[in-house]
Amino acid sequence: MPNFNYGALITNAVKGRSLRRAPAAGVRVQEGSVMTIARESYSLDHKVLGWITAVSSIGLFFALFSHDFVVDPVTFEISIYIALFLVIFLYLIFLCFYIKGIFCPFRESSLYPRGFKEVLLFLGGPVFFFWLMWMNSAFLVPKLFTEIFGEDATLTSEVKKQSGISRRGWSCTHRLEFEAFSRHLFFYCISEREYNFLPDRGIEVELRVKRSELGYVVKGLTYNKDQL
Q1: Out of 149, 162, 178, 225, which residue is the most buried by the measure of CB atoms under 10 Å away?
Q2: Ordered DSSP codes for 203-219
Q3: What is the pLDDT of residues 178-217, one digit of tens each?
Q4: How far apart are CA 186 and CA 144, in angstroms?
Q5: Angle CA(34)–CA(39)–CA(44) in degrees, nearest 5?
Q6: pTM, whole model, 2 decimals?
Q7: 217 near 210, Cβ under 8 Å?
């Protein structure tokens, strides 16, 4: 009867299972290292820059979902200078800290590729933040001020119905075009039934608004029955 070495057989089987499991363990270690490097790449500099961008983007998100504010022409012009001043002021502070090595979100170990960080720093950054600051100074702050301190009033304006997707109101197929005031980021949506009911010519309407020195918020309108 053959003499089997059962101890050696069991030992080899255990070693085989260990060798088969070794690559998977190595993969897990490698994946863990990649995740650790990615987490370490998000330094304090990146977090500060992210918070600045998030706070500055409030006006942008506000403009996407709010379209009932008509900014005063003088306020609109002043907002451009305010946004320009804020961008220059913050950019000079950032550039000073960047030169001294205090604030370096675009350093060599950054997540951004080589060459892209310089373009973002000297060209894209100022333009992008100017746009965000302008959205806040031209629409967010004036509308909040008007909603809080404004007074109820009525205005008269001539309107004309329009159909089709516009760049100001991509979700507004049928709308009214106002001729009496600035229409930056403002549009007034109407239903298809209301669109078909209105005449093709321009008509005069009475607007119910909340008004302040910075502009006014359109709350609703009333049609003149004699013109329908």
Answers
A1: 178
A2: EEEEEEEEEETTEEEEE
A3: 876 656 678 788 888 999 989 988 889 999 999 999 999 9
A4: 16
A5: 150
A6: 0.66
A7: yes
